[in-house]
Structures are given as structure tokens and as C-alpha cells.
């Protein structure tokens, strides 16, 4: 290849940056493009929030534990890096909301809290008769007259009333972002609900019409619904390991930080903390928004990204002998209503939801603490967090002894909050870069979706943009 190679630098080795590097090199091979890729990661490991602990036969996720199957990009990445056969689907089971000290089943037919079946909703003890009557107002209420963005809380309270929101919709929707639905952006988190109202007026009728019917999966004992999530048999970190192995030798540089960024003609100059300088033809910046904002502060760019709030969360995995846990309810986990006096926000019975994670005769529970306005707990010592979590769980299930071990993971100021106006903030940031640093692309959980498939999609989209810029494709 006689043509001089184009230097593409990817900053950040989370799943966004890692998938961008993989698909950039894949495109270069398949399209015979002269591209040299360098992935720079400031820590000594790749994967970002994806962290798996493999201990005593357990497979324990510190961060995300799965991804939606209907969003195809993580499945595709797993197959592309050669571990597609390791994909496992979650076992289905009853999920609950903890309200007033009791685990109440989430009504059948609920789609992100919106009822699509009237019968289970009417029979549910999650709501009073008055709350159910108020929710029925959705059948007759007109469309919202709000133009532009609005909060999830405002949108859903208008349609269903406060009780349905507090006891069902808020725990389900805010759990994804550890956020406050009275500030979370409808446009940037769940725009599909706005579109359903716009088209069908009633959310209940609209979701009933648009939600695909679940196809039963025959298991030899009758029919059971298929799980909606995938994980990997050996933990999600296996996709990080497999992807890194597929990258060309010398692609990844760990423990290196970008100190400054500047322009040199049509190229971008990166000064590293090692004293080295890299001149890049294109840069894909997959760091968090605060790091991006700090990097471009000397140029007066991306300062609007500082308006993106963050919160801290922690995961607490507890391994027990099976005989130490007595559960009266069948199911895979529960979410906690904000109205309750609990520090935990959710708990997954991992051994039931993901049977391949837990040895025979053992139980694995995974609790979550921290959300907007309630994240001080994340700063407590490990033994104090464990005590609080065990105390909360002890009000719900019978725990006869101490755990074999506990794995606590903190994500400090790490969960971006997509507040009202988020889409405009991101559009403004990209417009600034387009004017001043057109060869720099933003991608990652701070911008266009926090789920793993969303991050992979952003990495792939950035690759396509870069190739179009460099080669006019």
C-alpha cells in the first residue's frame, strides 16, 4: 500500500472506544483503507464500567450485567470477535416493587410501567382504587401540548397521576439512569413514549398496539416467555478481552493520558503525559463528558457539557450458602419505591436470573445503592455499606448467616444524568467541534445512550463518520 496511512486516535478504552477501534480496523481491512489506529486509555485496563470478578466458581459483575437483545449491536460484536456461542439469555421470573415494606408483583403486561393489560393492573395491590381510577384517565386525556423537551415525571404524571408514577413507573425508569424522573429528559431517554402519545393519544392503547407479542419458548414443561436480555457465560468482561485480542498488535496503549489537544493545519495534535506528541488525522473522543470539557477548556469549547450532572452508585454482590437464605417469593429481583425507608434501590437474585453465574448450592444477591440526592452512602466504608445492605435485605428475606464474601464496587460521579435539554446540549457541543476541531468526534455514555448496545452503536457511527471525512465514502 503506497498511500500514506491516516492516523486515527481513539481516546478512552471503554466499550465505546474498544468497539470503535475494532470496527475501524475491520473496515480498513475489508475496504483496503490506509488507516493506522491507536487506542489510548488512561488506566491499566480496558472495558470501563464492564468489570467481572471470577471467584470460587462465581461470575460476578461489578458494573453492567447484561444488555437488551432487541438492540443488536452487542450480540453482533460478540459474534464478530468469536464468542457468540457464549451468549446466554436471562431466566425469566416475577419481578417486584418494594412498596410499604412489601414486595408487590409488577403487573403482567406492564411495559416500562405502562399497563397494556387491564386485568393484572386492576388486580394489583400496588395501587389504591383512586390511583387506578386516575390512571384510567389516560384513555380520555388529550395529547400533551408541550413543544420540545419535558421531564419524564411531568409527562407521566399528567397521563397517569402521581400514585402510578411513584409506585411503578419511577422505580422502573429511574433505575436505568439512577436519576430523578422530574429532571430526566423525555426526549433523550424514552422518546418512544412521546411518539406513542403523538400517534395514538392514549399511552395504554398505543403501547398495546405497538408492543410486539412475546413468543412463548417451549422448555419441555409447557411454555415460558423468553428473557429479554443477554449476557456472556464467562462474564461481560470476556467481550472486552476477546475484542482486545482481535486488535492489531501495538494498537492499545494503557496508562497514558492526553494532557493537551491543539490544531496543526488539518490535523489534531495530542500531547501525552509521557512527553510524546501524536499528530492525528482524526480523533474519536470516548471519555466522559467532564474529561472532554476539561481537555477543551483552553479553547473555550465544550463548556456546556459541564451542565450534565452525574451521580454516584455502588453495587454490592453477596455470596451465601443456599441454606443461609430463605425466600418466600419466587422471582428474579425487585426495585424499591422512593417512598420506602430503604438505602438499597434494587436487588437482583442473580442465581435465579443468571443461573450460570452461581455454583450449585450457593446463592448470589446483587444490591444497588446510590441515586440522585441519595448517593452519600457510596462514600461509606465497605463494612458499613455491607451492614446497611444486609439490614435492608433482612427486612425482606430471611438471612441466617453472614455472606461467604462480598464484592463492593463504587462508581463515583460516574452516572451521567440526561436532564431536560440534554439533546440540545450535545448538539451544541458537536457544532462547536465541527467549527473548530472538525476531525474530533464525541461518542460514549455521556451523549447518546448509556446502555452497552447504545455505546457500541456510537462507536460504530463515529467510525463511519471518520471514514467519510478521510476518504469521502
TrEMBL record:
Keywords: Cytoplasm, FAD, Flavoprotein, Heme biosynthesis, Oxidoreductase. It is an enzyme of class 1 (oxidoreductase). It is found in: Cytoplasm. It catalyses: coproporphyrinogen III + 3 O2 = coproporphyrin III + 3 H2O2. Its cofactor is FAD. Its EC number is 1.3.3.15. Pathway: Porphyrin-containing compound metabolism; protoheme biosynthesis. Involved in coproporphyrin-dependent heme b biosynthesis. Catalyzes the oxidation of coproporphyrinogen III to coproporphyrin III. This is Coproporphyrinogen III oxidase. It comes from Sporosarcina koreensis.
